[in-house]
Amino acid sequence: MADKKNNKNNNRNNMDDDFNPRYRKIRKKVCPLCADKNLVLDYKNPDQLRKFISEKGKISPRRVTGACAKHQRDITLAVKRCRQIAMLPYTQG
Ligand SMILES: [Zn+2]
Fold it and tell me: Could you give all domains of the chain from N- to C-terminal order, each with its CATH number?
């Protein structure tokens, strides 16, 4: 019992701990476009852009895509262009 209590306190004070109920796993996301230099966004390629939109057709936020600010802007632009030429939906479902 006393041991359990000690463990709990340790977890709370140590953010590097693997198991921490408050902070879960802190894993740094790597921007998919920075990671793969050969990957170039193309607004004429809806299959490639589909990864960055939700089921409803909305553009996923950075916390989901993991993209850096620069590439998230590129993604947004590409998706919007793709919608304009009717290769991606504005809305779905
Ligand atoms: Zn990036």
Answer: 2-84 (4.10.640.10)
